[in-house]
Amino acid sequence: MRIGVDLGGTKIEAIALREDGRELLRRRVPTPAGGYQAVLRAIASLVLDIESEIGERGSVGIGTPGALSPATGLIKNSNSTALTGKPLDRDLEGLLARPLRFANDANCFALSEAVDGAAAGAEIVFGVILGTGTGGGVVARGRVLTGRNAVAGEWGHNPLPWPRAEELPGPPCYCGRRGCIETFLSGPGMQRAHEGRTGERLSAEAIARRAGGGDASALETLDLYEDRLARGLAHVINLLDPDAIVLGGGLSNIDRLYQDVPRRWGSYVFSDRVTTLLLKAKHGDSSGVRGAAWLWSPEEDGAS
User: Fold this and answer.
1) What HEC string does the chain produce?
2) Which of 288, 215, 204 is nearest to 250 (CA)?
3) Which residues, in sequence order, are bridge partners of residue 172?
4) What is the pLDDT of residues 78-91, one digit of tens each?
5) Region at 57 (left for phi over 0; alpha for psi -120 to 50; beta for the rest)
6) CA-based angle 126:127:129, to the nearest 5?
7) Domains of the chain, earliest start first
């Protein structure tokens, strides 16, 4: 049995999978507001409760915001401030009395979709989360690529490629720079673009809904978003040349992206032909927690 835990800012979710990927059970609790120690206890309780209910001990993989720094062994780049600077791996391994495997939540998403999701069987998969932020993860031959600095796949904190004059210097990003891909392609980025053009403050979901109904201003915003997404993903294709790119997060539910973006990215990719697949996540919101469980798949032996 494999157990996966997805540690989010508002909820902690755990899942138990059989070897064939069949779901045994799932549990979810609110992320405690009591700080780091409370988060540790909540994760440990979820795992132990699942094992008690099933009557079996399992391997445990943890998907986290941010990543474990190879330099310090502490969590870095996390938007959950209670985790930043903490030895999450050592503390949880002590509580659960076993080795654990950890990966960034976007890496877990990519792994889930590469193992038994929309891109099952693909050799190289780039997973993209388009939501309140813009995350990315890379899986090659069934194995998560973490990288020497544990930042592989962090495309959201690169500048938007081929920027136009009106896109410079770009909106400020929480990382301290301006013009990051995340500031354009996240849900708040789409909202900001629409408001800047029309003066109307709408959520990304509302913009997509209005565009579906034929609203001209919403269609213009979505058209701009698609061109920016095509530019961002063209950079990924030029660097990794993946077999498939899988989209998750709230904005992945905009169905027209899957036809319109590949139609556009050929103008930016350094190739005479682009056959990369753009796919919608099969497991939806469940992909991250499933990917955490798959960190213990045979292909991931030796991963951390």
Assistant:
1) CEEEEEECCCEEEEEEECCCCCEEEEEEEECCCCCHHHHHHHHHHHHHHHHHHHCCCCEEEEEECCEECCCCCCEECCCCCCCCCCCHHHHHHHHHCCCCEEEEHHHHHHHHHHHHCCCCCCCEEEEEEECCCEEEEEEECCEECCCCCCCCCCHHHCECCCCCHHHCCCCECCCCCECEHHHHHCHHHHHHHHHHHHCCCCCHHHHHHHHHCCCHHHHHHHHHHHHHHHHHHHHHHHHHCCCEEEEECHHHHCCCHHHHHHHHHCCCCCCCCCCCEEEECCCHHHHHHHHHHHCCCHHHCCCC
2) 204
3) 178
4) 877 789 999 999 99
5) beta
6) 145
7) 2-108+286-300 (3.30.420.40), 118-281 (3.30.420.40)
Radius of gyration of the chain (CA): 19
Structure-block tokens of residue 298: 């045979």
Mean pLDDT of the chain: 94
Structure tokens at 83: 């985790």
The encoded tokens of residue 272 equal 């005479």
- What does the alpha-carbon distance between residue 238 and residue 73 come to, in Å, rounded to a whole number? 32
Is pLDDT larger for residue 8 or for residue 280? 280
CA distances from 161 to 68, 184, 230, 235 (A): 28, 11, 10, 7
Which tokens sit at 182? 């995340």
Report the C-alpha gap between 153 and 135 in whole angstroms: 8
Joined tokens for residue 186? 């996240």
- pTM recorded for the entire structure: 0.93
